[in-house]
Amino acid sequence: MAGIYLHIPFCKQACHYCDFHFSTQLKVKGSMLHALAHELELRKEELGEETIETIYFGGGTPSLLSADELSVLINSVYEHFKVIDNPEITLEANPDDLSKSVLKELSESPINRLSIGIQSFSEEDLKLMNRAHNATQAMECLVEAKKYFNNISIDLIYGIPGMDHKRWKENIQKALDLELPHISSYALTVEPKTALKKFIEKGLVPNVDDEQAEEQFHILLEKLEGEDYVNYEISNFGKPNFFSKNNSSYWQGKSYLGIGPSAHSFDGTTRSWNVRNNIKYIQAIEENKLPIEREELSVTDQYNEYIMTGLRTIWGVSLEKVERDFGEQHLTYLQMQSDKYIKEHLLYLDGDRLLVTKKGKFLADGIASDLFMVNLVT
To answer: Cα Rg for the chain, rounded, in angstroms?
Structure first.
């Protein structure tokens, strides 16, 4: 099984913290949609005989597209790839795009899952992040979306400067009151070349507080697990049968094809990515050229990637798989490096699987990097 990701590189306005590839100029939207459909055709052989189980519209802001425009791209996937019955088809959306009429149109399209970028139910937080929606729209769109979709996820951000634990708990409670089946939650990070980075450097906004962010992560973890959400990946909480199939496939090392400017692809041994420029992307595709760079992953690269993704999930890292796929040397190294974290109760062994403890979850990426093997090319 494999997935297809389509990057829609347009936004109404730039969020202060975002470093994803997008443009606020929509003049080339028509040409972009033609290019996306044509790239699907040009790459129809890349996944071999694998069957598509997920289609994911990310961005940018995919909800800027109409239901008809989205359906054209979905039909192109069906035309060029073998797709399972009832695939998960997710649309990332912003609250200000989800009017009653739009939600009705989407519900009549092949889209069957919404991932809505709420980020916060607080007006103060939304203004700091320069989100296009307000707190009222955040709540109203979710109440309306539930009339048409049962598979809804929202994004929430913690560690926002000025957001104390009280406001964070209120955010969580509002999400719980809506009885949503999936919540994705991330710590605010300060990326280079973003407006947020500049504001912090100028002293206009306080820097993020890592200790506060860690505390808010544990508040989230305790609250959601108490409401029967499964923390199946460090940033993702789902009710049973509502885990994101798209994201789970990434963490479990399945193949996926990334379509659109800046989109990444992976087939198990090769990672590739498209040019991060809308005009260059469109021009290349119109000339039947793929504007792609590719990187062949060594065995050690594959091992490091498996460690990073595996430790973030409830499935953990299988010692048997490490030995089978990467060799005894990698297994021995993993056991040696992980021993100190086991003693510190940050990692633990459950049979064959190495997993992070609740205490270790917020530190998982740092722990994983210490388990990476370097300076060995195999």
So the answer is: 21
45-80 per-position pLDDT tens digit: 999 999 999 999 999 899 999 999 999 999 999 999
Taking the chain, what is the end-to-end CA distance rounded to the nearest angstrom?
Answer: 27
Question: Contact 254/247 with Cβ under 8 angstroms?
Answer: no
Pairwise CA distance, residues 70 & 76, whole Å = 10
> 55 forms bridges with which residues in the sheet?
4, 89
Distance CA 29, CA 370 (A): 43
Under 8 Å between Cβ of 249 and 268: no
Distance from C-alpha of 59 to C-alpha of 92, rounded to nearest angstrom: 7
- Distance (Å, rounded) from C-alpha 72 to C-alpha 79? 10
Rounded-to-5 percentages of helix, strand, coil across the chain: 40, 20, 35
Could you read off the pLDDT of 143-200 as tens digits, one per residue? Answer: 999 999 999 999 999 999 999 999 999 999 999 999 999 999 999 998 898 888 898 8
The residue count for the chain: 378
Q: Which amino acid, one-letter code, is at 226?
A: G
Q: Alpha carbon 79 to chain centroid distance?
A: 26
Q: Which amino acid is at 123?
A: E
Residue 145: CB atoms within 10 Å: 24
CB atoms within 10 A of CB 57: 25
pTM of the complete model: 0.94
Up-side HSE of residue 230: CA atoms within 13 Å toward CB?
Answer: 11
CA 87, CA 105: separation in Å to the nearest integer? Answer: 19
Long-range contacts of 281-289 (CB under 8 A, 24+ apart): 281/32, 281/35, 282/28, 282/31, 282/32, 282/35, 285/35, 285/38, 285/39, 285/42, 286/31, 286/35, 286/38, 288/42
Strand ranges of the sheet holding 264-266, from the earlier edge strand across to the other edge: 230-233, 236-238, 182-187, 152-158, 113-119, 83-93, 52-59, 2-8, 255-259, 264-266, 270-274, 292-296
SS3 assignment, position 313: strand
Farthest-apart Cα atoms in the chain, separation: 58
